[in-house]
Amino acid sequence: MPRISVQEAIFDLAAESAALSAGRDDIGGIASFVGICRADDGITAMVLEHYPGMTEKALAGIAAEAERRWPLTGCTIIHRVGRLEPGAPIVLVLTASAHRSAALESCAFLIDWLKTGAPFWKREEFADGTTRWVEARAEDEAATSRW
Amino acid sequence: MPRISVQEAIFDLAAESAALSAGRDDIGGIASFVGICRADDGITAMVLEHYPGMTEKALAGIAAEAERRWPLTGCTIIHRVGRLEPGAPIVLVLTASAHRSAALESCAFLIDWLKTGAPFWKREEFADGTTRWVEARAEDEAATSRW
Amino acid sequence: MRILYFAWVRQKVGIAEEVLSPPAEVRDVAGLVQWLSARSPGHAEAFAQPRQIRAAVNQEFAQPDSPVAANDEIAFFPPVTGG
Amino acid sequence: MRILYFAWVRQKVGIAEEVLSPPAEVRDVAGLVQWLSARSPGHAEAFAQPRQIRAAVNQEFAQPDSPVAANDEIAFFPPVTGG
User: Fold this and answer.
1) How far apart are CA D52 and CA A47, in angstroms?
2) Cβ of A35 and C77 within 8 Å?
3) CB atoms < 10 A from the CB of B41, how many?
4) Pairing between β-strand B89-97 and β-strand B82-84 as defined by DSSP bridges
5) A102: nearest CA in chain B?
């Protein structure tokens, strides 16, 4: 059963990773990806908005698809919302499997799909007080379509 | 400059990940893979031997190759040696980059190459006192050759 | 019918949510967009370029020809940018 | 010439390391394997199936035709199984 969370609070990579392997001796590898807020173009903060209710359903659906495609022993997706400053972690994906390739591939799959398949929107804030909605990128669509 | 370590001690995923991003605002993602000792076929422990001197050189060479192929802001490889019981973490690979695909791909590259390109040998111990050297797997060679 | 707006769609419409009863001829997402566009200058501006708008019906991504019904929850928003 | 053995190659040879001076006609890894095989039954058993043995010369992976010289560090071991 995947663990899905949409939250303002920061997440704890080590605790989340430990939770996937606790008490088990059949896991060969755990892959993770942490997405972090960059300070591109003088961004002072990123405000993340989402569609409560649909977001959790979309993330659970993406996780279920990963579990259909790879033999996972566990899967965690945590996505933060609210105001995040450069350097702050935004998203955590963790996958555990008996086999490293399943863990690595499903982790990449989840982050690629999440970018185009879950209702989050980012607004960038700049030092001069202006803000700008981030536009969807064609390369994210391309990354999703390779799966 | 990649961080390379061959050690008996356990490693700290959170601390190693934090070290890659500390004080920076240009990192978009950190990918990690932790390889873990499985209890396959009644293994009670795994003893890891290596070639001191050559191992560090080989790992540094693999990390340098990853840095040539992807725009990484940081890279860490920690491989444990000695006696490890099922559930124990064996190896940690961490990669950081402005872009998620670079972090994810280089992390998979490093763990695939490490399996066939660094002088480590595993001996499995069983409950009845017998031991067995792990044989190299053709699928690891195949995983390396895709890069 | 409950209508939700997110991100710059919400900003242009000027509200986050409204409960409406479109006429019977509004049968799909495209029809709803057309009907909503006539409600206010803000709605008109939000839906001025329909290709930049995505929709969900009952919290599932939808297409212009996806049917909409009286008790549905319909959301309009820009292409998603999470992760 | 310093010769190192690892994993089951070390176990079969019976020692981890030895310093030797092979004759001048030993010019490459394959020649060294042949010469070492005659040193003891343990050496002979370790090198009985050369295809299962890998070598390094001065801590770089080597091939059967890689040259070896007096001051080199040569290691023999099974295919690696780390990670």
Assistant:
1) 58
2) no
3) 8
4) unpaired
5) B108
The complex's ipTM works out to: 0.93
What is the per-residue pLDDT for B40? 86
Mean pLDDT of B15-28: 95
Total-model pTM: 0.94
pLDDT for position B145: 83
pLDDT-derived band at D61 (thresholds 50, 70, 90) equals very high
Whole-angstrom distance, CA of residue B9 vs CA of residue B12: 10
Strands (DSSP E) found in D2-80: 2-5, 17-19, 54-57, 60-62, 73-77
> Which CATH number characterizes residue B43's domain?
3.90.1170.40
Can you read off the two tokens belonging to residue B144? Answer: 């390396």
User: Looking at the complex, does the CB of residue C51 fall below 8 Å from at least one CB of chain A?
Assistant: no
- Identify the domain containing residue B123 by its residue range: 3-145
CA neighbours closer than 13 Å in the CB half-sphere of residue B80: 20
Residue indicated by tokens 């009644």 = B42
Q: Which of A84, A103, A2, A11 has its CA nearest to residue A45?
A: A84
With left for phi above 0 and alpha for psi between -120 and 50, is residue A68 left, alpha or beta?
alpha
Chains C and D touch (3+ CB pairs under 8 A): no
